[in-house]
Design brief:
This protein has one domain: Glycosidases (TIM Barrel, Alpha-Beta Barrel), CATH 3.20.20.80. Helices cover 25% and strands 20% of the residues. The protein has an 8-stranded mixed β-barrel.
Length: 270
């Protein structure tokens, strides 16, 4: 998940049920839809710089989606949904204080268009895990049908404020605090998004109880993350998605259409 670029069925709208957190409540999110259970739409988008895949290509997977942050302008989610964007993860927070100013707009519009929607937190290597979890909890509502929260773990060599690479034991411990704190609040364990370098160097497979969303733009995850079971695969940062201007990240779900519906039923917020 890069910090920068990086059915059409009508769904009835319901009010979001917001949960209190530490005496405060997340900002209301208008126009949120009920849980997504409609049919999967087939991919009808391109890739500006497609990779010549060796082995199983992303096109072999049935369920495609994207991820989104402030660096994308308003997205026409209805058009994106009709052209094969079945899910999206939207950046909500970063570190212990920062929030993505486009989160609420993307979140509301994607859910209203019938896109399965979740929120992600970009990890800051200079803040403790509990404070980062509290930042996420303050800003992301408990929304019926939402995908699990995501912790985005990457190195940040170009950060203007924090380029440190903490020791393995520290990173694992602080990330686990974040995961467990968020899991207690939302009632389900977050996913963890990883890139190959940090996953290998700090043995992130040691995190307890998580599913992985892996980035691999030049090889199938089975080669880049050997022996690792993954749920989502980000395979491109140069997708050309109708309704989404410029380059967009492209992702697939690991299973079939039926497996996707079963995963949603098990993992989407009740």
């Amino acid at each position: 998940m890069k910090r920068a670029p990086l059915l059409l069925a009508a769904l009835s709208l319901v009010a979001l049920s917001l949960a209190a957190c530490g005496g405060s409540r997340p900002a209301a999110v208008a126009g949120a839809a009920s849980p997504v259970s409609g049919p999967v739409t087939a991919p009808n988008f391109g890739d500006r710089k497609p990779h010549p895949w060796d082995g199983r290509a992303p096109s072999a997977y049935a369920v495609h989606g994207t991820d989104t942050s402030r660096y994308q302008p308003p997205v026409d989610w209805v058009t994106a949904r009709a052209n094969g964007i079945n899910f999206t993860f939207i950046k909500a927070t970063e570190g212990a204080e920062d929030a993505d100013p486009m989160f609420q707009q993307h979140w509301t519009a994607a859910r209203a268009a019938g896109v399965a929607t979740g929120a992600y937190h970009f990890w800051y290597h200079c803040a403790p895990g509990r404070a980062q979890a509290q930042n996420f909890i303050r800003r992301v509502p408990k929304a019926r049908g939402a995908l699990p929260p995501v912790l985005d773990l990457e190195w940040t060599p170009f950060s203007p404020t924090c380029t440190r690479r903490p020791p393995q034991a520290e990173l694992l411990a602080e990330a686990q605090i974040f995961l467990d704190t968020v899991a207690r609040h939302y009632g389900q364990m977050p996913l963890v998004y990883v890139s190959p370098d940090i996953f290998a160097s700090h043995e992130l497979w040691r995190l307890r109880g998580v599913e992985f969303w892996v980035r691999s733009v030049a090889g199938h995850p089975s080669k880049v993350y050997p022996g690792t079971r993954w749920t989502f695969w980000q395979y491109s940062g140069t997708g050309q998605i109708p309704g989404k201007a410029g380059d967009g990240d492209l992702n697939v779900f690991a299973g079939s259409r039926a497996a996707w519906q079963a995963w949603l039923a098990r993992r989407a917020h009740p």
